[in-house]
Amino acid sequence: MPAGGPGLEPPPPQQPPDTQEAQEPDLEASDAAKPPSPAARRGAGARTALTGAGGAVAARLPALRAWLVPRLPRLVLTVVAAGLFVASFPPTNWWWAAVVAFALLAWVLTRPATTLLGGLGYGFLFGLVFYLALLPWVSLLVGAMPWVALATVCALYPALFGLFAVVVRRLPGWPIWFAVLWAAQEWLKSIFPFGGFPWGSVTFGQTNGPLLPLVQLGGVALLSTAIVLVGSSLTAIALEIAHWLRPSDRTRAADPPAVLLPGVCICLVLLTAALAWPRVRHAGTGSGGEPAVTVAIVQGNVPRLGLQFNNQRRAVLDNHVRETMRLAEDVRAGSAPQPQFVIWPEDSSDLDPLLYAEAGQEIQAAAQAIGAPILVGTVLDAAGRVQEPPEYTNTVIVWNPVSGPGDRHDKEIVQPFGEYLPMPWLFKHLSGYADRAGHFVPRSSSAVVHVAGVPVGVATCWEVIFDRAPRKAVLGGAQLLAVPSNNATFNQDMSEQQLAFAKVRAVEHDRYVLVAGTTGISAVIAPDGGELGRTEFFQPAYLDTLVRLKTSLTPATRWAPIVRWMLVGTAGAVILIGIWQNRGSLRPNRRRSRAPAEVKDPKDRKVADVAAPDDEGGEHEIFDSGRHLEELHDHRPAGAPEPGESPQPARPGDHPDLQ
């Protein structure tokens, strides 16, 4: 009989406690069993991704720290050097900062731990920081991305310099080779790509420096070479003295520091500049028998800055006519001298005066009011070219008060991405600013126009930064140089930097240079690079000044291209020599580190230290401020390993004290 008595159901079987709890409904478990919402899945995925990325970064931090710490001093010095280099340019104009900049960069590139790849990287970093800081005005026109892209492309050239500097640093006289390598990369950047971009050449930061007269002897390339040579030579002297004073160097008493060659280089540069200075200074005083003429520059200004300038063509023409009329009134009142001719800026009439009669009549009225010819910067339809959209020439035309248009200069070097768009099939798809580029075409024409009987050389805006444009004008008989420009799309810093180009050209060719800008800065520059007058930026104004007509040709005018080709050829030759001499050691020998052999003799210890692993994981390349590897043989005891070889453990039969 079942337990519990007759008529009673048996009690339910007893369940274990765990089983009972499991049978109870779990609301939380049932909620968790529901499939997660899409938002929850996305959040979980994001958290997982962030966790994974954070873990990956954390895992790489030790390796990054190990890579960064030994290189940090060189990285910092490279950035400091680039900052100092920028400070040598307008508006700061600390000419001496360029010398210090190249001294620091030379120190970085001559460190034994700096490899070929390191030289490339340090050079690129130097160039990137420099051009980003030098060219921020580019972003005002086209935004940040083209500015960064331009700086990045420009930085590739200092990167090449850094690479080849490591190749040649072990050659005797390395400061000289560093200087010619820099001159070579400046030349390359001035011709490629899209016709080149010489902006940022060392020379154009030296307009206030004592070495500026060198530009009259050998042009821009010679002065750039001299600055880099002085900076590198200072580093060579410092390295030699530091090596000589090193307490661990027991041979310093018998081996004095080799400072003769770098010292001679510095003295030679200073002496040459001192010898050239009197001639430059004499030309700047205006003394001599050259005939003098009075020339006026008119800066009419624009209604507003920026790209909208191109949509206000009639207003710009009216402004320049109005300012010329004011000058004419001052001449009649006796408060200003009568000019022999007047210079208007580039784009002072964006209406073609040969097609639009009203524009031509306004210019004619201004010329008649002042009673002198006007050099008018204008835009002309490119005759004989049937294109869609239409194409134009950037032209400076002489407008006589009686006969109207006369001589003209068509711009030969047009600005890429500003006046025309190179490779439109590519760049139109890369940037929305590409469509804003103009449709100007270059025209080969005379660089000299005759105004009131005076041969005037014209280098329109962008052309003045290229060596060949003003040189062509002077060789063509120009007795003074005019630089009509239009900086309405940029700011004052850009205008100051362009003015530095004009100052260098004045000294280089021994000519007065007249800079006329729509918004400024307009200036009259003497042949010594000094300013005889200047206007304020973004203000209507005129300058009325006496200048002298010069006819002599400087050594730079005659032979600067030869000097540049000699420097470029020397750079190519020294690179080949460096590659040949270092063919076995250009790449550091990366080996698994081993415990250093025990060396009992102090002399052997010195040789063993030469091949000690460096702080980048490879062996030190033997570099001692330009000394040859052969010098190490003079101090190496018999049986010592060759430089770059690992020392072998000392054996009783190898050491004289143990025999």
From TrEMBL:
Residues 1-45, 587-659 are annotated as: Disordered. The chain crosses the membrane at residues 94-110, 117-138, 144-167, 174-194, 214-239, 259-277, 562-582. Residues 595-608, 619-637 have a biased composition (Basic and acidic residues). It comes from the Bacteria. Its EC number is 2.3.1.269. One of its GO terms (biological process) is lipoprotein biosynthetic process. One of its GO terms (molecular function) is N-acyltransferase activity. It is found in: Cell membrane. Coiled coil: none annotated. Keywords: Acyltransferase, Cell membrane, Membrane, Transferase, Transmembrane, Transmembrane helix. InterPro entries: Apolipo_AcylTrfase (IPR004563), C-N_Hydrolase (IPR003010), C-N_Hydrolase_sf (IPR036526), LNT_N (IPR045378). Belongs to the CN hydrolase family. Apolipoprotein N-acyltransferase subfamily. This is Apolipoprotein N-acyltransferase. It comes from Mycobacterium conspicuum.
